[in-house]
Amino acid sequence: MSQKISQQMRLANGLQVQLIHDPLATSAAALIQVDTGSHDEPEEWPGLAHLLEHVLFTGSSAYQDDERLMAWVQAEGGKLNATTLATSTAYFFEIASHKLEPGFARLVDMLAEPLLAVQAVQQEVAVIDAEYHMLCSYADTLCDAALSQAVIGPHPLQRFCVGHRQSFGDDIPRLQQALRRYYQQFYHAANLRLWLQGPQPLAQLSALAQRYGAQFSCTEQAIDSAATVPLILQSERTLALCCAGSPRLRLSFILPSPPKRLKPALVLLRQLLIDSAEQSLLAILRARGLADDICLLLPYCDDRQAILTIEISVCADDPALCADIEILFWQWRQQLLSLSRLSRHHYASLAVRAFDYLAPLDQLRARAFGLAPIEREEESDWQALLQLLHRDNATRLWSSPAVKADAIDAQGFRLQLGPLTFPPRHEASAVPLFRFYPQPQQVDFAVLPTSKIRLPHIVPDAGEGMLLLSPAPGNLLSERSRHLIQACLRTLSGHCAHLGGELVFDVHQGLWLLQLRAENSVMLSSVAQLMSRLSRVSDEDRAQGERAFAKAELAARADIAVRRLLQKLPMFLMQQGVMQPDASADSTALLPPAWQAILYGGNAELHHQLSHLLTRFPATINTGSTEYSEAIFVPRRYAMATDGPDSAVLLFCPLGEQSALCLAAWRCLALIFEPHFFQRMRVEKSIGYVASCRFHQSAGFAGLLFALQSPSCSSAELFAYIEEFIVEMAGVIAAISPKLMAEKLAILRDALQISRRDKPEQAREYWWQQQAYFPAMTEQDITQLDLPLLQHYYRLFCCDALQTSSIHLS
């Protein structure tokens, strides 16, 4: 459970501060939220708030070019981003904990002393225009725009807030002045909130907040914020939208109460919705072939009201299913009215546990504008929320590629949207008995076999055990099999969570991994059940898996171009002869024939029992070596491209040799390349919205990954830009100073530190190293890497002898 300690304070200039001390973290994060968003921008400048968010990253008084926050965080191997919402905007980053102060100094200067240069404004107008065109076919954006048509207008919810070249116009100096006026009106201390989180003591975090937070101006000027306009539903509010991707139903409800007050109840509702255990709402919808997934969204929120959306992924492209789904939903909601305090506390504790496993940056984002769990939950707030979930307060949106409707304009997007009437349905007399936890549990498993497998036991007696199972190298898992396995384990995963454990089967760096963490009796019982389910797949599970596979294929075709390429990269690498599959494998079998397993943590008794129990697994386990060994190695580059409204390319360059020293050099090159690549492609050339260069691990291989997406350049032109960049970096590599080299090596040393708090991450790191076609990087390798060696490996990286394998996706 969380060991965090928090403290709130207000600085003399009015800045509100929340500090979170997490003693077990190895990284730190900062977030600054401004209480202004797209609803506060002038009517004549739609998208101005979004544009300001972009321009602020381009430079400030004290930090420009390579020293500005974006370039600096990229060079340090950290993460950063920003989000503009209706009534708030947030800027945030995560970095190694000892780099928090220089990062925070840059964030504050970026927001307190921005340059807002004409050239930067013009540059970001082009970027936002490319982003707008990309969003024109993005399903989530179109569904949000459609929701605005269910509200009586005019309302700020219906405004165009993304912005594009036409909305900003050609008079850049005038646009710059509008940005300055907007900035001066809202960006001052009394209108800001700061979050700092890290392993530093509260006194140290407080000193940082006071030292740099004082830089924000203190003004007595009243903020002329946009007045709250009540959300009132249209009389016709069941709509159908033509939208690419899988069909889905969105039930949306207006929350007239202050959203902050209802957030604990919303967190509880979300946890109940996503529960996948037997007899949960989600499990019953899946079993009846009605829906596959549910999520809770807050597409609109201000200080006084919000819109709550429950999005349901429908099993088939048939709007008639929506009526059956709603019947079950309303029956479930009725049973929630009598949910016991013990059950509410149980689900709230599950939400807290999930929150604790988030990275510091994701935790701060949830605290600022998401749904961070709060252990205190009031019965009155829970009942108030449930009372708002009624038919008269609901709007329905059915989205499907098959919808036929007239075209309208909504939030600046062109939609095919019209009214829809669901076929009538009569509620069944037999109401399903939904199951809510905790429940009395009987945890048992069969008698242990006499035979046993060889099961490596890593870090024994280090607390609760974690079992990791994955296909052995060379044993490919088909897309269909992945979804079938996930379907088989869904209800078991939900049940395991209620018993304090965790069962997950998902992809990590291009490879699939089953992770089971639990106390001993739950671990053994869960292993016995999962083996039984994988040995004999039920018709119900098979149907769910086939649906999930078909939906994934459909979703991939509708996704952003670069994401489609990233999803295909692991299989592309495996099929290029670098990792050859077992020729004797049965391609129709659910499981590949050879698997590998390790136990991380846990005691000797658990290890003994699992080594016997796993002999019943429906495939062989650990018949080969689980230690690193050199494979046949063919150095080459891997190029992927796709065309459409946007062209997108990936260029993956694996290590030039199988050595830890080459790994250290490649990671160092990535740190040097990343900010330069972003500057060249996004800023100087303005080729598009996606421009990324980073160190990447996929399917057992590590290397540099270049990604570009552009609405105006062909894939051939994008590849040429990347090759030109690689050659031009010779001058940058040659000019690296000893000081800069030392800084990059220090970042690599930081990367060796695995979070002490997150044992699953430790276990996954160990597992990943067993799959890798290169040895692990050590402190000695980093120390050995000097500038002449880095230059040597850069020349190897550029070597013309490297072959290129290419694929062009439709």
Question: What report would you give on this structure?
Answer:
This protein has 810 residues and is α+β, with helices and mostly antiparallel strands. Helices cover 42% and strands 20% of the residues. It contains 25 helices and 24 strands. The strands form four sheets. Strands 9-10-8-11-7-13-12 form a seven-stranded mixed β-sheet. A hairpin with a 4-residue loop joins strand 4 and strand 5. Helix 20 packs across helix 21 and helix 21 packs antiparallel against helix 25. The longest helix has 25 residues. It is globular and about 75 Å long. The protein starts with a strand and ends with a strand. About 1% of the residues have low confidence.
The counted number of beta strands is 24
Distance between the termini: 47 Å
Total helical segments: 25
| Main beta-sheet strand count, sense and barrel state | 7 strands, mixed
The percent range for helix content is 40-55%
Radius of gyration: 27 Å
Q: What structural class do you assign from the helix and strand content? A: alpha+beta
The whole-number mean of residue pLDDT values reads 89
Low-confidence stretches: 577-587
Strand order of the largest sheet: 9-10-8-11-7-13-12
Instruction: Please report which band the strand proportion falls in: under 5%, 5-15%, 15-25%, 25-35%, 35-45% or over 45%.
Output: 15-25%
Gross morphology: globular
